[in-house]
Amino acid sequence: MKPQPHTLLRFFFGATKLGPGKITLLERIRDTGSISAAGRAMEMSYKRAWMLVEEMNAAFSDPLVTSARGGAKGGGAQVTATGLAVISHYRAAEAATALATAPHLQDLQGLLRDIPEQK
């Protein structure tokens, strides 16, 4: 059985990269209100999740995520309007890419050998 083909979209803005991992992290922060919960959901350390958030915040003119330390008010994180726009634009580009490449992926898949998926 041949594996199902799919596209993987990653943007390069000089040294800054934006791809599915960072977008998923933003979505999980949006959904959970927490950088640490988002990282755990992705099997990623808090340190790694925070580093990626800092990287994204530094790359854009406005921060994508704001956060408050824990304590009496509970802390947490929020995806900003700019962060929501980044998610939306990325997902739209991803859908357009999948649509545009679908016939080519089918043709390429037809040229593959029937080799079982291996890890």
Structural class: mainly alpha
What does the overall shape look like? Answer: elongated
Order of helices and strands: EEHHHEEH
> N-to-C terminal Cα separation, in Å?
15 Å
Largest β-sheet summary: 2 strands, antiparallel
Number of DSSP strand runs: 4
Q: Detail the poorly predicted runs.
A: none
Mean pLDDT: 91
Fraction of residues in H or I helices:
40-55%
Gyration radius (Cα, Å) is 18 Å
- How much of the sequence lies in strands comes to 5-15%
Q: So how many helices?
A: 4
> Order of strands in the sheet with the most strands?
1-2
Topology at a glance:
Blueprint: E1 11-13, E2 16-18, H1 20-32, H2 35-41, H3 46-59, E3 65-68, E4 76-79, H4 81-110
Antiparallel strand pairs: 1-2, 3-4
Helix pairs in contact: 1-2, 1-4, 2-3
Task: Please tell me about this protein's structure.
- By secondary structure, this protein is mostly helical.
- 54% of the residues lie in helices and 12% in strands.
- The protein contains four helices and four strands, in the order ββαααββα.
- The strands form two sheets. It has a two-stranded antiparallel ribbon.
- Strand 3 and strand 4 form a beta hairpin.
- Helix 2 packs across helix 3.
- The longest helix has 30 residues.
- It is elongated, with a radius of gyration of 18 Å.
- The mean pLDDT is 91.
